Amino acid sequence: MKFIHLSDTHLVANKGSLHASDPIYKLRRAVQSINKHQNDVDFVVITGDLTDSGSLDAYKDLKEILDDLVVPYYLIIGNQDKRENFFKVFGGLSDYESSYAHFSIIKNNSLLLFLDTKFGDLHDGGFCEERFEWLKNKLEKNSQLPIYIFMHHPPFEIFQEQMDAIGFGPKKRFWEILSQAKNIKHIFFGHVHLLISGSYRGVGYSSVRSTNHQVALISKDKGFYFNSNVQPTYSIVHVKENQVNCVAHEYLIEEITYHNFVPMKKQDDTK
Ligand SMILES: [Fe+2]
Question: Topology of domain 2-253, per CATH?
């Protein structure tokens, strides 16, 4: 299985700019890059904060841009989204179960879980009883399959004070449920506007940068600062038996500047 992980596209109404950057331009460039250079992927997934304030127009713009993709795409929502407006435009995109924007698919004999961590009007992520039950059922019914999870908020600390302050609330219960499944392979998340990878309780995880603006890693004070000069990325993900490999691609820079590589004779790795 091969797919593209994108996140935090933050489209604004009236095709506006955001944090001195043009979110529509940067997303279009990602779509062009994927269509040209990564068109053999199984799908593209965007892990939330699709829009900056949940405006209906922004979702319509998003649909127009994403419909240009030559591969299928899947969407989940983040804290900046509005579920109601999202469903008005994308309600028929996936088999969303219940009034939450969560769904699952089975692909290549693996379970892919797409979670909805939006919690009220808060920037923090959360879950309610219904979502915990949904997750529990999915894990119980598919206990034999390898499981890959997509969610907006990371369900653990990422050691970045501002982002951890608006993290996923019910971590303890979430991991109590996840620990019942023995086959969680990887968690893909957004929200952090940073390129992060690591593992938690033996489960691998990774994020991608926003397509529009990144969290500025400066210790000025406790406020939020964004940096729109940092290159956005998408991640090219290969999933094979016992392996998840994520390559972060700074897709705005694709011009080749120098080419002088002559491959050497291939090693014989059977020895
Ligand atoms: Fe975001």
Answer: Purple Acid Phosphatase; chain A, domain 2 (3.60.21)
